[in-house]
Amino acid sequence: ALAHETILLETTATQIDLSFATEYIGDSVSLTYNGKVLGNGALTDGKLNVDLSGITETGALTLLASTVKNNVIYTFNVNVLLATKIIRTIDDLDVVKVTQTNIDNNTSIYGYYVLANDINVNWVKPMMASLTYNGTVKNWEANFGFRGTFDGLGHTISGFAVSTNGMFGHVGNGAVIKNVKFDKFKYNGHYNGGLFGGTVRGAEITGVTLTNVEYTMPTKDPESTGFFAGRFMQNNKLTDIKIDASKYDVYSVFGRNISNNTYSTVEIKVKSFTMLGYNGDAMSDETMLLKLEGVTVITADTTIEA
Fold this sequence. Notes:
- The chain is an all-beta fold.
- The chain contains one helix and 24 strands.
- The protein has one helix at residues 100-105; strands at residues 7-10, 15-17, 29-33, 36-41, 47-49, 59-69, 72-83, 85-87, 112-115, 119-120, 149-151, 156-158, 161-162, 169-171, 176-187, 197-201, 204-215, 229-234, 237-252, 262-275, 277-278, 288-289, 295-298, 303-304.
- The longest helix is centred in the middle third of the chain and has 6 residues, at 100-105.
C-alpha cells in the first residue's frame, strides 16, 4: 500500500495530484472509480487530467490507479475526500447558507462541504440568514434547508456574531455537521439566533466544540435563542459536543421547541441557565426541561448530570 494523505478534491476538479507515487508510475496511468475511468494518460508535473462528472457520490472515496513501469504492473489506492465545495474563505461560507431563493423555490442544499483551513471572520460579517417564510416553506419544515454534510476537518471558525437564523439559516433532515470548532464569538441576542439555524431538524451534529463564547440575553422571546437552533430543534442526534459559555447567564441552552433529540457526551458550561428548552411548542412550567439524558451542564455552583 502506498501511504499518502487523503487528497482534498472538488467535484469540479480537472486534475489530481499523484506526485506521491511518481516513482511507480510509467508513461501513463489509469484512474478508475468502481470500474469507471476518470482519467488515463501521462502525468504533467505530477498531476493527471481527470473528468469527475460521472461520480455521483461525495465524501471519502477510494479511487484505483494502475500503471505499468519496467514491465511491472502497479495498482494502488488513491484516497480522496470529494467535496462539492472546499471552503477556504469567509465568503466561501455562503455556499452552505439557505437563501430566500431556496425558500421561494423550495430547493434544499445538498452535497459535501469541507473546511480546508481555519477561518477568522474578524467580525466583518455576522453568521446570519435573512429569510421570510411565505407559505412555500414553513419555518419548522423538516424536509428543507441545508441537508448536506459540513465537515470541518478539525478546523476553527472564529471572530463572528451569531444573528437571526445563524450560519445555515435552516437545517433539515439528513444534514451532518461534524468535526468543527467555533471560538471567540458571541450571540448578540437576536430572535432565532442559533449558531446553525432558526430550525435544526433531523441532523447529526458530531464532534463540535464552542469555546470563548459570549452570550447576550435576548430582550424579546429569550427562549428562541439556543446554542445550535433558535425556535425548532427536533429529531437531531448530538454526539461529542462541548460548549463553554461559563461566564454567562443563559436563558435556554437549546432554544425553544427541542423534542425528540438524542444526546451523547454533551457537556455545557454556563454561569447559570433557566432551562434546556421546552419539550414541544407549548411553553409552560410542565414542558420546561432542566435535565436531558446524555447532557451534563456545569454551572457556577452545581453540576447537573443526566
